Amino acid sequence: MKKDMGENINKMEVVSEELWFKYFNGEVTSMQKRAIQQWISEPKNSNAYFQALDNWERKNLQFKPNTTAAKLRFKSFVNLHPESILNVEKEAESLDNRASIFKNNWFRSLTAVVILGFVFWVTLMPGRDYDTYTTSNEEVKTIRLADKSIVVLNSNSEIRVPKDYIATDIRRIYLNGNARFSVKHTLDNKKFVVNTSHGCQIEVLGTEFDVFSSKDSSRIFLKSGSIKLYASVKQKSPAILIHPEDVVRIAKDQKVQIEPKQKYWQYKAWEDHQFVFDGSTMDEITTMLEKQFKMDIHIEDETLKSKAISGTYQWKQKEDILYILSDILNFRIEERDSIYYLKYKN
Length: 346
Known about the structure:
Elements: H1 2-8, H2 17-24, H3 30-40, H4 46-58, H5 67-80, H6 82-98, H7 105-124, E1 130-134, E2 141-144, E3 150-153, E4 158-162, E5 170-182, E6 191-196, E7 201-204, E8 208-213, E9 217-224, E10 227-230, E11 239-242, E12 247-251, E13 257-259, E14 274-281, H8 282-293, E15 297-299, H9 302-305, E16 308-314, H10 320-329, E17 331-336, E18 339-344
Parallel strand pairs: 5-6, 15-18
Antiparallel strand pairs: 1-4, 2-3, 3-5, 4-5, 5-8, 6-7, 7-10, 8-9, 9-12, 10-11, 12-13, 14-16, 17-18
Helix pairs in contact: 1-3, 6-7
């Protein structure tokens, strides 16, 4: 019976809510999972997928704002800073006097209300500032956001979080470098948006994913849930639907590359100060080390660039991986002017 259901999903116009919930809970068979993902890949079915995901997340809420506590904090702020309210009242009176130059009563009233609202926002809200979190050369840092979402920040990376992050309509984070996000779905369905230094934008409600961003490229790996990806905000590129275990690579002046069903081997490994190589070439490995540790590495032997290696390797300092690989592949390392030169031993 289950086999027939899995085989016939692509012939159905609508997937039942029961089956959707089993899919999001990881309770479907491998055949059903494959059939559903094939059904989702059809552009005409994307809206149905997002609707089902939204229904599931509404019934599996992970964060509920404490509005009572927020009101108490606001009252406490007013009691501690009564001069703020006084300043707003004085500004309102001043604005009303200046507004009398307008002959049109409606325009005068509207102007006063708009400006008064702006003054109130500037006086009482901290939304123009950011909390900035950075990591050093060999540091990994875990950050718990106000909505209980988790950001694990890799070395040489930075995120900026607006101080009014939880109060705005969209939870927005700015990333430069590499980070893993575990996003909590909120009661009011606020989007969680990551803007990268490369210019792409990632939108989710609640999910887990890994992002690497530099000035010229971005790479996204989706562990679970679903995300909408905009490859270039500046160029207003259309949204791309990303599925679990997809790896997306975006580079300047190149077409977006989507690699489905990747057990992305570096995912989460860097949190334990590890690198996991699966037939990776030395050229790929050095590029990885350069981006994570801000190292400058030159391979002087062309044949060394194509040498491949597999395995899991632990590191404590940025040079550790290079020295481990030099013993395995029999090359030497020379450091001159902060540049690492790799060449086979004579």
